[in-house]
Amino acid sequence: MLTKRIIPCLDVKNDRVVKGVQFNNLRDCGSPVDRALLYEQQGADEIVILDVAATVEARRARRDTVSNVRAALSIPLTVGGGVASVADVRELLNAGADKVSINTAAVTRPDLIDELAQNFGSQCTVVAIDAIKAGASWVVTSHSGTTRTEIDAIAWAQTVVDRGAGEILLTSWDRDGSKAGYDLEMLEAITRAVNVPVIASGGAATPDDMVQALAAGADAVLAASMFHDNVYTVAAVKSELRTSGCEVRL
After folding, report:
1. Which of 45, 70, 75, 227 lies 20 to 30 Å from 199, alpha-carbon distance?
2. pLDDT tens digits, residue range 90-112?
3. Dihedral of the CA atoms 137, 183, 20, 198 (nearest 10)?
4. What residue segments make up the domains of the chain, in order of their start?
5. CATH number of 5-243
6. What is the pTM of this model?
7. Could you confirm whether 130 is annotated as catalytic?
8. pLDDT (average), residues 165-174
9. Among residues 11, 174, 176, 219, which one is catalytic?
């Protein structure tokens, strides 16, 4: 049985880790290097860095932030934020990212997914899907949640996989920063529809939230607030997950 991954997420703005609700009312949570190293020491399987200002400011994630984190880190690192071209991805990979996440650029120009998979392989091509509830289904949002599209999230997940995405980072925009738990209904629908790993994101507050997300089909669970606020360590979460019967890496 494949073990499940625990992934702290560092939302970064101006080279500081920040956290809020749907990227509003941001509070400072420290240095990305310090946070990444702390979580690795606690047993994190991977780190995700998302530059939350990059798309709005029409730029890619800051290369120096990525290279500084990579210099301190030995576990896999995924980077996203403002990525819009093959050249952007190449620069981030050269700075030390193992995988690169795209969101708005994929929605705007889906051919980019094919280009990244062809140039770098599906294994480092991650498509982030931010989705909100819309009646009986969910639709995709872009531009850091500020633009609601009419794209069905389930159909979009299938499309990105068909185009070469090797992993989906699925965030419930309704739950982001809410500490109300993951959107399990959406998670189950997406994981049933695709055959690549899905990372659950948005709403985690307790290890039990993660247990439920993994039971709903997630291959990995991503969280920010519960780690940044020092409510739980990664080690404590893994201990509770093992007690609940989840296979996680030691």
Report:
1. 70
2. 999 999 999 999 999 999 999 99
3. -90
4. 5-243
5. 3.20.20.70
6. 0.93
7. yes
8. 96
9. 11
